[in-house]
Design brief:
Helix content is 36%, strand content 22%. It is an alpha/beta fold and 228 residues long. It has one domain: putative 2-phosphosulfolactate phosphatase (Alpha-Beta Complex). The strands form 3 sheets. A 6-stranded mixed beta sheet has the order 1-7-2-6-10-11, sandwiched between helices. It has a 3-stranded parallel beta sheet with strand order 3-5-4, with helices on both faces. It has a two-stranded antiparallel ribbon with strand order 8-9. The longest helix has 15 residues, at 154-168.
């Protein structure tokens, strides 16, 4: 296997990966998406534009809208913010979840033409590695979405490091990767307790390595992108 990495906010003038792409957003988009699926959602629809996402949620019926703007504040008018701990108490059985976020969803849209596309976070990292291995992929590109001018993005880099180590057959100590998520620039904003829309419960959940035994492949259906 060959491995490469793209940082979402450094993508200008870089080639588009076309084989297997893993878009990572640990804090919090793809932790939230994983929780939604575990809570019984039939699919998660990632939509970059907030207005388009709201319109799709209304059109689909039996759906809920989930989203946040840059920095983590909830999208006004949406049913839920981008909070995985909040979704743990939600009744999502059989519902569609329409998601719009500033990082993870944008990453998926950027690489929508990849042969294989996965959304991933630490809670489903090993399952993602297993799915990649089962697909016999030869080239894997990890897309790091959490790096910004004021954030090191190490929560996502740690997840990529973990998945790559598994695929290479290298020994891993899960606690090391959990620590990196919690100590990342963005992780520390949750522990600081000064950001009302960044609850500690979200960080605790996002740090539960391999909580879920499913991967999150992204497919297109009826002109829409969806995660199952």
């Amino acid at each position: 296997m060959k491995f490469s990495r793209f940082f979402l906010n450094r993508l200008q003038n870089q080639p588009v990966a076309s084989d297997t792409v893993v878009v990572i957003d640990v804090l919090r988009s793809f932790t939230t998406a994983a929780v939604a699926l575990a809570q019984g959602a039939r699919a998660v629809y990632p939509v970059e534009n907030v207005a388009t996402a709201g319109a799709l949620a209304r059109r689909l019926g039996q759906s809920v809208s989930v989203g946040a703007v840059g920095g983590g504040d909830p999208v006004p008018g949406f049913d839920f913010g981008n909070s995985p701990s909040q979704l743990l108490a939600a009744d999502l059985q059989g519902k569609a979840v329409v998601m719009s976020t500033a990082a993870g969803v944008r990453g998926l849209q950027r690489f929508h033409q990849a042969r294989r596309l996965f959304a991933s976070s630490l809670v489903c990292a090993r399952a993602t590695a297993d799915a990649i291995r089962a697909s016999q992929a030869q080239e894997i590109c990890f897309v790091i979405t959490g790096e910004w001018v004021d954030r090191d993005g190490d929560e996502d880099i740690a997840c990529a490091d973990y998945i790559e180590a598994i695929l290479r057959g290298e020994p891993v100590t899960p606690e090391d990767f959990v620590s990196r998520v919690r100590e990342s620039d963005f992780g520390r904003r949750f522990t600081a307790g000064t950001w009302p829309n960044l609850p500690m419960a979200d960080l605790d959940l996002a740090s539960q390595i391999d909580r879920f035994a499913f991967a999150m492949p992204v497919v297109r259906q009826d002109g829409l992108m969806l995660i199952r």
